Amino acid sequence: MKRIARNGPCPCGSGKKYKHCCVGKGRPEGVGRGPRLRPGRHPVYPCLTQDIPGAAAGPLALDWLYEHHEEAAVAAYAETYFAGLGRAQAETLAAAPGELFTLIDCNGKELLLAEGEIEVDGVTRSCIDLVLGSGGPPLDDEQRQYLEALGGRHMSFYRVEKSRRDRGLALRDLVDDSEPVRWIEARELSRGRFRKPGKVFGARLLPGTPWKASGAFYATQEPHTSYLLERIRAELAENTDPGRVRRIHSQYIVLGWLTGTAMAMTSYPTGGKPGSPGSG
Prior knowledge:
This protein is an alpha+beta fold. 38% of the residues lie in helices and 13% in strands. The strands form two sheets. The protein has a six-stranded mixed sheet with strand order 6-3-4-5-8-7. Strands 1-2 form a two-stranded antiparallel ribbon. Strand 1 and strand 2 form a beta hairpin.
């Protein structure tokens, strides 16, 4: 396991320095299940495209979930985001330095909200349904529409076909050949390494005029990207259930990125294939 810096953020997710929190208490709470989320830790999405109408619903929904169903939300976060990782990999990610931890945490928050399921009173319900149901947080029509769109779209691998400062990026869906090339707006994608034609990454696109990227991005490297695409296509050929289709996309894209990130942090041998279920 990677050594935790005394002055770094505590892996339990408290927001305190490790030396002022879990140092001397053995393995920090939550390590092995991935970074722990707590109410109050998500007033904003640092990775989310902020100009999507209604996007403020994200932090509101997460705060509500952790206030009313904290234990179930923590469990759902681990099951949805870290399923398939080995314990050592999860511990490595939980001990990530501040900026990287924020990126890992942001991507996980979006996945929990978009695809997570929570058991309430013996009944399994999606996080989106819970938030939008009776008793959920107060939301205006625009915020409700945003959450419905987030919960209705699966992620996919996209390749940058063109990049223009005035129009954003033209992205081609590499999993579904029937999808048209879409011009999207996303400030996070319109600068730096994401602008280069030929760049491939996992993302969730939300419909609109124009379409926008939700804000969680999963960049993997060759040959792993091709391997992940092959696995997604193979499983989609045998599954047509909409819920299963969503899980197939996220299973390989997210797990591939997390595994690759953990490997990079620990200089893990490169012979493995990140994204393979149960790898690590």
